[in-house]
Amino acid sequence: MAWWLARTRRPLPLRWHDLLFAAEQRATLVNVKLKWVKDRALDSVVARERHLRQVHRLIQIISSDPRGGVPVNELPRRPLQLGLRCFLPSDFLLRFPALFRRSSTSSSRSLIPWFHLTDDAFQLRETELGVLRDNEPELVDRLRRLLMLTANFSLPIHTVDQLSWDMGLPYDYHKTIIQRYPHFFTLTQPDNDERVWLKLSSIDSLLAVSELQKNSRTDGSESDSLAFPVSFARGFALRRKCMMWLQEWQSLPYTSPYADPSDLDPRTDVSEKRIVGVFHELLHLTIGKKTERSNLSNLRKPLRLPQKFTKVFERHPGIFYLSQKLGFQTIVLREAYNGGRELLRKHPLISIRERYASMMNAGKPGFCRRHCISESEVVSPEN
């Protein structure tokens, strides 16, 4: 259910005591709490990618091997979780016969199992690589914009790795994209810092335009009080006080996520609107317009955010949806789905991933208990 305040540019006439409330909230952060309401459509968006990232990593490993397959002893050793159970990687692959097939080669003492992609999976992987090549300039621009959001135009490579799946980066982007574009990216290691950082080599001001600003130009609006598109799940009721606050909050000045926020008082609603704008832009940089909440934990200092910055997700459920599916919290940008289960603008890589997910569900066999190991039996790789 789309809410009309998303398009409101001017506040409605207010009585004198309402104006006092509005004046106060411009100066301080108003303590308004909106309840969380389950959104089944967006929960299904998160749930349909169950195990997809794990499967895709194994597809990458097998497809990149020049031998056309990988022996079982060269697969990752860490057990993989499937539902409530843990599987050895070789047994995990057997769960998806439409994607993986097993063969054996003889050695001096025994038969060694090998794993390959099925013909259909191989063809889909080739299609995916073609899509990556065709969309590389767009991907590079999104990576540049991600770094432009930060204070020093740089992020620890580990933080970029955490976002790489959501941004559609190839698993070997360190060796491919970064090396192919030295005029854009460089890897550095600051003094007294064990981390390697990805730094932007040059700044392009033409990229420093947020999605909200682009859309406002399309609509013909030149106001500096840009309003975020807002919608709520069915059954969500907004109290009058909260409606007044949100209407006034939408009319506050919009600070570009690419601008220096040092002049903003972090205790004000204006600053909070800037934080919302940062994550609104960050989610637009992902191909699925969503990311796990844990991926944002290392971004507070680079993005110049105050303590407890993730509270904006609870305070603005009309902009962000906080899904609890799959055992972790996922932040979803509501406007990207417009109340449905499908993206309004679907990136080509999303279509590829949907085909992988469909193949994962095809031909699942009954699985014998002997293939499975319990979590208590899992041996740490360090041992």
Automatic annotation (TrEMBL):
Residues 37-364 form the PORR domain. Pfam families: PORR. This is PORR domain-containing protein.
